[in-house]
Every structure is written in C-alpha cells, then in structure tokens.
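lol ok so funny story. i was supposed to be doing the assay writeup but got distracted and ended up predicting the structure for this chain instead. priorities right. anyway since i did it might as well share w the group, maybe its usefull for someone
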Amino acid sequence: MIELREGEIPVVDKRKPYALVAITKHGVVNARSYMEKFPYADLYYMKKFAKGDEETRHIQLFDGTVRLLLPALFQQYKGVICVISLGAVVRMIAPIMVDKMTDPAVLVVDDLGQYVISVLSGHIGGANELTYEFANAIGATPVVTTASDVQKTIPVDLFGAKFGWMWDSQEKLLPVSASVVNEEHVAIVQETGEKNWWMHDRAMPDNLNIYPSTTAAIQAKPQATLLITDRIIEAHEEVLLDNGVIYRPKSIVLGIGCNRGTTVEEIEQVVDETLAELRLSKKSVKAVATIDLKKDEVGLLDLTAKHNWSFVTYTPEQLNEMPLLNPSETVFKYTGAYGVSEPAALRYANATEWVLEKKKSGNVTVSIARVNFEECGQ
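and the output, tada:
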C-alpha cells in the first residue's frame, strides 16, 4: 500500500510501461476490466475501493490524494492513463510538466469508458498513438485534437495491444521501431492470433512484408522482424531476434479438471510443466475452462486472478455436446459429463482438435486447445 505525503515522491512497483489510475467507484470497476483488455498497464487506485485481490493481481493501492502519486508515475512510466476528469488532470499535471521531449504521454478516460482523450505529449511522447490503441482495446471513442496527427505505420510497442498481445521483451522495441519508421525492410511472420491488426484505411507501407514462415523470413534477410507466435522459438530462428520482437497473442486455452481443494501451487506447477513440454508461452494463455461444478474452486480462481486469465465454466450438457476421443464413464458418474478438461478447452477455443488432448498429473488434469481465430472472424 502506497502512503502519500506532501513533499515526498512515493516508491511505486513498476512492472509495465504504462500506468492506469482510477479514483472513483465506477472508474475502478472499469479500470479493473481494462487490465485484461490492455495488459500493458500497472493499475493504481484508492484503498477505499479495495476488492481483496489486489496483491494477487499486482494492483497497487494508495492512501491520499492522487495528486501526490502523479510525480512518481511521471518519472517511472512511458505513459499515464487517468480515469479522472480532464480538468482535474490538467490542474494536477501542470506543476510537474517539463517539456515535450521528456514528459510522458498522458491520457484521460471518462468514468464510463466512452472516450479516451490525448492530453499531453501527443507526438513525441506517443499519446496520440496510445489514445487510438487504448480506445480500440476498451471499445471507446478516441479524441485527438492535433491537426497534423496521422497514423502511418505499425506502432511497434503497441502492436496488437487492442487484442491483448504482449511482447516477450522490450529490449529491441526501440531499434525495431526505428526500422519501421525509417522504411527499412521489416518482416512480419504470424503463426496465430487475430489477423485484422492492420486498422488503417490505406495499404501497408512497402517496407512491411508478410512472410508465411520464419524460414521464409530468414531467407529474406530483413533488417527487422515482428514475429507473432505462441510457441517458444527454436535456436535456428533466433537470428530474427537480432533486431526483432516476439508478440504473444492470447491464443491458448487451458481446459482444467482437478480434485476438490487442489492448491493453486499444484495447479500452476502442472500448467507450467505442460506448457514447457509443448514449448508454448505462458504469456499466450487466454483462459481456463472447466465444468460448472468447479466455479468456486479456490485454486482455479486464484490462478486465473493471478494472471488475469478469463475463467469460464460449462454445464455437463454443454460439455457433452463436444466430440471426445476417449469419453469416460467414470467421469460421467461423478459429474454428468463424459469429460471435463478436453471438451471445456475445445468449446472455449471453438476448435475441433487439441494441441494436447489430456494430461493427468497428481490432482490435476489439463488439456490445451488453440483459439480458432478464423471461426471467430479474426
């Protein structure tokens, strides 16, 4: 918990490039949902709105006026997104503004999440681009008043943000961004994830080239690479990362069954081991799906809250609608469903086959499916 005092700049736990701040009841409710839609921001709100899961979800509470928190956020973050009225934000940031070369991007979001307004550092600080991306992510209307503002290409640090994509490492964000804006040869390889990421009403610049595979991209010898995948790449592909960024789309669904009372530690250990065996990135997990008998299973609730994953449950009847290779009479006897992890994963992913049909380890059974983005219209 952050204690705010006049004359002191508080210590904040920065984990992501942007800060998201809310100070009202409705603003906090919306801001908590924005964490899933835009996973690049650390969330801060007043302690009186605490829900009890803040430590698990890495949400930081503060006690005192938000005006005393903003100097620390200005120093630490690339941008600050305020679910606060525009007038209040302008008054609070006026004394701490320095110049357009060093000030972070500042955005304002109204309490109901209808509008996202670019307030400070529109061009150099990236507020205008962030406004478009954040508004797309939360389904709001972007408001940018800079007359000369035009989106010309891919914003490397926000690529896929509206879909919840996350980059693996920020190490190469700046040099890859330079390659993009300087019209150098940039390779784009997409193995999974939403396909409708080009949002502009004109063709992509000629320097951006889409390749069907990493092999084709390597042969083309690009000056930079954007690789969209949920898998851990192989050693021979790492040449693409000499000046490249890996993006992790939310494409993996975990179907999980477990004995009553199984700890979150045991469930997560099985998940981690299974993903490692399959060489899949944990950053690409979108959801955990299971039977509705497990809707109050503490271990599953803690796991999904910890990672901001969706938690979805299905009735036995819904699970039995899914085709199974190995239906179990024993499972049916106790649950009314012929399987739990396998059909739950398929149903959520809208898929017809598994990446992993089923693995049982200790008290946990896990199945993995990949989201069918074609059927989702993406």
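Confidence is low (pLDDT under 50) at residues 147-151. The first strand starts at residue 2 and ends at 3.
back to the writeup now i swear
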